[in-house]
Amino acid sequence: MVMYVIKVSLYGVIRLQAGISHFESTASTLSELKEKIPNVSRKEADDLIVLVNGTAVKKKYKFKDGDEVVFMSPAGGG
Amino acid sequence: MATNYGGYMGKVLRINLSTKEVSEYPFSDEERKLYIGGKTMAAKILSDHLTGNEKAFSEDNLLVITTGPMTGSGAPSSSRFNISTLSPLTGYITSSNCGGNFGYYLKKAGLDALVISGKCENPTWIEIQNDTVLFHEADDLWGLKTSETQEKLDEKLTMKNGRVRKNGKICIGPAGENQVLYASIISNERVSGRGGTGAVMGWMKLKAVCASGNKEVKVIEKEKMVKHTQKWFKYLRKHPLTGNQLPKMGTAGLVSAMQMKSILSTKNYQYGQYDKFEDISGEKLAEEYNIVNKGCLTCPIRCARTVEVNGKQVKGPELETLVLLGSGILNNDLKSILRWNYELDELGMDTISCANTLSYAMEANEKGLWDNGLVFSEIDDISKVFEDIAYARGIGAELALGSKRLAEKYGGKEFAINAKGMELAAYEPRKTVGLGLGYAVSNRGGCHLNGGYLVILEGLGLSIDPTTPRGKADLTMMFQDLMEMISATGQCLFTSYAFFPSPLMNHPNSWYTKLVNKILPYCGGVVRFINKFPEIAFFHLPVFHHTKAFELVTGMKMPFGNYLRAGERGYNLERIVNARFGVDESKDSLPKRLTDVPQDPNKPETKVPLETMKKVYYKARGWDEKGLPTKKTIERLKLDGDVRDKG
Ligand code: SF4
What we know:
The complex is a heterodimer. Chain A is α+β, with helices and mostly antiparallel strands. Chain A contains three helices and four strands; from the N terminus they run βαβααββ. Chain A has one domain (4-72): Beta-grasp domain (Ubiquitin-like (UB roll)), CATH 3.10.20.30. In chain A, strands 2-1-4-3 form a four-stranded mixed beta sheet. The longest helix of chain A is centred in the N-terminal third of the chain and has 6 residues, at 13-18. By secondary structure, chain B is of the alpha+beta class. Chain B has 26 helices and 17 strands. The radius of gyration of chain B is 23 Å and the shape is globular. Iron/sulfur cluster (SF4) binds at residues 77, 99, 295-296, 299, 301-304, 492, 494 of chain B.
């Protein structure tokens, strides 16, 4: 499988937990990338809202060159 | 007039500022049962006095300050009190809920509410201690900003032993004194912000009210209530919104989520996204500026932020202020927003209306309609502009009038972002159309909370289709009624967010959350049925602790269905009073930018289909095509006594 360098941004309380706002990582699938968020377990990562290039994607999404990923904790109420 | 119910002190005080007369205002147990407290109790009092001919700045107006039966009961987030009056901004009823300590101490003084009328000859402050009401000259306080006013009042309330008597206060700043139409009232650091209650207090020449006393709130089932409260605290602490997001990031935590959902009002609601959103985000606030989170009395959520401004620890900005003074005017300097937030509280001005009036003015200038020198993203002189507004100087005297009046003078009604004259909150509604409906029909004008806060289903919480009108009218009605009642009881609306079962919030990618998101818009019929016959819910819901707590405190029967019905009654009562002042279907509107211009030019559905939703909403509410409650609805809600021809 081809690995891509993916730009990742974190938002919401998960960012406070991870202690990092943005990072780059190599992965070929979304599932793989979920394993690589600092201080965040795979189970926790599964419950994050995921956007690739600003849109929601399927769980088994395979990356393409230049993809940018957002992981965000669910947020509401203000 | 004593009461047989728990939660109430059984006494409402009428204070006439012109004559300095103080008397008991009759409010019976029968009325308590129907009108509960808070904004609904205030609406009843206003309904009994207002004919439709009064003006906000006149001796015929009333400033009604109410608590609810849950205020001071020890229930979570139950320090709230409400201020209602005829709004100088809208000309209709406004109700503004505040989390400061005044409500708690008003009850300590043995009072459920104050009904203030008339006008003082000279600046005055009022001291209430148990049964004593004293009027004091306030010449030395007049002109002071709000924190200095409160400090000075504490000096005056210092006892012989050198200790300050425990008290709760409300006061106004220079903006209220100068009758800025969106002036606020401050209690501690919390704000009764919306609708210009502070301007009415300023017109009355009433600088402040302090309350203190040693009375206790009677709880009917004390032991059971203690247990229930413990369970409730635990539930709120475990819930992802009330136990995690709000305590850790406050409402500011929504900025990024709003950006992702394209509902972050940007450049006076021209867009739903801001490329520099990270600079004004809750994450940045938490990482770089928040010192500690704070809360109102008895609140486990503690959503307030503390930041440093000019070497002082002060309250941090809420989401609305971050967005409207950030992306709203294309300003990515977070530090400036922290400072302005503090300055606006000190001057006593609503940050939402002020910011939206400012962004209207910037756009009017950009479009050549009004040469006022205000430019998007140019922020150097903004502090001075705020001072000028508060002291009604130069251009500030015009900005003090709000966006609606300015658009009538200079043009640009389509981008004067208000409903019924009150400026909208920070959520850009073209991608949360249910909230768009809520803004338009809300009794107090462009308010997200009085509007039912449907954005919590349309992207911030759940993720139902945000642009379909399907199901939105019925859901809006249900959420409006629910929030109306929570507010009436004296609790914080944020407790309602735990209504959504944790698994739905915690697992947004699960099959069941996806299913709920898919089917909810199609449940309009079911929701309509519950709205129509709420009595079928004759039980307490395990995710909604409010109803049982209400029963334990007051001794009144209050299953979920009755709770909804009481909220519906309150909502309709405000509408009935507003109708006397000319509110009807034509006033339930939004600026054309939001209803006629798609946010995304390639997606025609990204605008608020207001007329379609309004028709369904009126039907759901039992209102006629003019948007007024039908005779049948009025009878069903036992509001017959509140309907009268304009006098
Ligand atoms: S949730 Fe926030 S606003 Fe509500 S009572 Fe608690 S601290 Fe106050």
